[in-house]
UniProtKB/TrEMBL annotation:
<protein>
    <submittedName>
        <fullName>Uncharacterized protein</fullName>
    </submittedName>
</protein>
Amino acid sequence: MERYSCKQLKSLVASGVAKDVTYANERSDIPESYTQIGYAAGIYGCNGMLLKGESGQLYAVTGRTSAIYIF
């Protein structure tokens, strides 16, 4: 698992490489099975995640929201 900065995760979303799921409310918001391939951590713990679906699609949680605990 690789460590990213929140800025890197946001740039992946802005460039269209990853889909933003920061404000997702349930696991079904990602329509396929996935694995965590990266994270962003700071002083207060985990600040973001990078997930990869079985189709190869990337999903990013770019902030410290409840989506971190859902996925």
